[in-house]
Each structure stands twice: as C-alpha cells, then as structure tokens.
Amino acid sequence: VRTGAILDEIARWGANSSKGLLQDAEISKYYKGEQIPDDAKSLTISCTYCSPQRTLTDEEVNSLHTQLVDELKKFFNAAIR
C-alpha cells in the first residue's frame, strides 16, 4: 500500500467522520527493516484535531482517534504495534 493511499483514506475519513475536527495528518516516521515482515512497513502517523469554536476534550480526541485507527485497521488490514 502506498503511503499516499493511507493519507488519502485518513483525509476521506476526516471529511466524512470527524465532524471537521481532524485538521491534518502526516507520516512522521517510516520504517522498513529487519523487525518488520517483508510485506509490511511501520508508520508513525501524526494527527492534529482542532476546533475553531472551542477546546476539544481528551475524551473527544481519544474517541475520534480510536475511530480513525479502527478504520485504518479495517481498510488496510493494519496492525497497531
């Protein structure tokens, strides 16, 4: 899977499911090597959640982020390390 496809899916999810609170997502680390199976890669994805109207609570952000992770697991058969 291309990393661009992952970011595209995150953007799609953000537009449709995050109530506009997902402002940005970027791949901050990419690793492919000895500890990762040949057909896999390890990514660290940084997400920014923000509301222009108010301060988001930890519970809101955690819930949104869990939903996003679940979507990526389902869509890409991803695993969390």
Could you explain the architecture of this structure?
The chain has 81 residues and is of the alpha+beta class. Helices cover 42% and strands 22% of the residues. It has helices at 3-17, 58-76; strands at residues 22-31, 42-49. It has a two-stranded antiparallel ribbon. Helix 1 packs across helix 2. The longest helix is centred in the C-terminal third of the chain and has 19 residues, at 58-76. The protein is elongated. It starts with a helix and ends in a 5-residue tail after the last helix.
In terms of structural class, how would the helical and strand content be classed? alpha+beta
Number of strands: 2
Give the overall shape, derived from the CA principal axes: elongated
Strand content: 15-25%
Order of helices and strands: HEEH
- Describe the sheet with the most strands: 2 strands, antiparallel
Order of strands, widest sheet: 1-2
- Helix content bin: 40-55%
Whole-angstrom Rg: 14 Å
First CA to last CA: what distance? 18 Å
Unreliable parts: none
Average predicted local confidence, pLDDT? 93
The tally of helices reads 2
Descriptive terms for the model:
alpha+beta, two-stranded antiparallel sheet, 2 strands, elongated
List the helices and strands and how they pair.
Blueprint: H1 3-17, E1 22-31, E2 42-49, H2 58-76
Antiparallel strand pairs: 1-2
Helix pairs in contact: 1-2
In short:
By secondary structure, this protein is of the alpha+beta class. Helices cover 42% and strands 22% of the residues.
